[in-house]
Amino acid sequence: MTRVCFRLQVQAEHLDAYRERHAAVWPAMLRAIEAAGRRNYSLFLDDDGLLIGYYETDSVTDADASLAASEVAAAWEAHMQDLFDGATGRADQTARVLPEVFNLEDQLAAAAE
Fold first, then answer.
1. I need a surface site. Which of 68, 69, 79, 111 has the fewest CB within 10 A?
2. In sequence order, which residues have a C-beta less than 8 Å from that of residue 68 and are 6 or more positions away?
């Protein structure tokens, strides 16, 4: 299992629209995310527009490929694109992935050995 954390920047004037759109994500999009193998998926949005996302997956490559090939994911990303700073493509394909530097369970397991 791989943990993935990413960041994007929502334009300040679009924070309410971003929150509204995510209050009721299209059911077909929810199923596409699940079918892609992303689990424990959460998004966090700060008042300055900093968006942090987190999910777990068995294969980042397979999950990304599944969503890249999904018509509903392409439509959702097009629906969301105008809300991001510097949007030059699908946000799900241009997000900055953050390297993990600490995980409690990993370190507890290592310390127990």
1. 111
2. 93
pTM of the full structure: 0.88
C-beta of residue 84 within 8 angstroms of C-beta of residue 17: no
pLDDT tier at 88 (50, 70, 90 boundaries)? low
Question: What letter represents residue 60's amino acid?
Answer: V
Of residues 3, 7, 19, 22, which has the active-site annotation?
22
| 22 catalytic per annotation | yes
- The tokens describing 108, both together, are 């507890």
pLDDT digits (tens, 9 = 90+) for 11-48: 999 999 999 999 999 999 999 999 999 999 999 999 99
Q: Which residues contact residue 74 at a Cβ distance below 8 angstroms, ignoring those fewer than 6 apart?
A: 90
